Amino acid sequence: MSSNDEKSIETITKFSIEIQNQNLRLFARVDLKMKLQILQLQKQLFHKLKSAYSDVDNTILTLSSLVLAIDTVAKELDEINLNAIKLRGKNNKAKIKRQKVLGYWAIVRTLKLEQNMSFRDIATYFAKYHKLEVSYSTIYELWNELENKI
Q1: CA nearest 89: which of 22, 14, 18?
Q2: I need a surface site. Which of 23, 48, 55, 141 has the fewest CB within 10 A?
Q3: Cβ atoms < 10 Å from Cβ of 117
């Protein structure tokens, strides 16, 4: 995408690139029902934009109308629902990290039991040798769930 395309989208949506990206991230987090609602609105907005900006490429109009549709639906949501959607996205990240740590559980056991490393040191080890940024508390919680049941 050229800088002219970016400028066109900013002109049409009146949103900076960062705000556009925030809206697109929100779209990724909402449930299917809301995604379909947004896409329905996007289709209507596309046709309005097409008549107003007939000289602009359809792909730019499609992205612009999607960003505008997401923003419109987000404004209809109350703050509680919006925060719940954002939190749901954060919870998914935590679940993914937990799954990755579980995949390395043999390493965690070896480092803890044989090397007597702290959970902070284990988190540092994963960051350095496995490019996995995980908090020590996540490892600690998993340890208590899995190892302290014996």
Answers
A1: 22
A2: 55
A3: 16
Which secondary-structure segment (H or E) carries 72?
Answer: helix 58-76
DSSP tag of 110 = I
Spatial contact of 16 and 48, defined as CB atoms under 8 Å apart? no
Instruction: Quick: pLDDT tens for 36-67.
Output: 999 999 999 999 999 999 999 999 999 999 99
Give the length of the chain. 150
**pTM to 2 decimal places:** 0.57
DSSP helix/strand/coil, 54: coil
Interacting residues of 114 by C-beta distance below 8 A, sequence separation 6+:
none
Helix, strand or coil, per DSSP, at residue 92? helix
**Alpha-carbon distance 43 to 113, whole Å?**
58
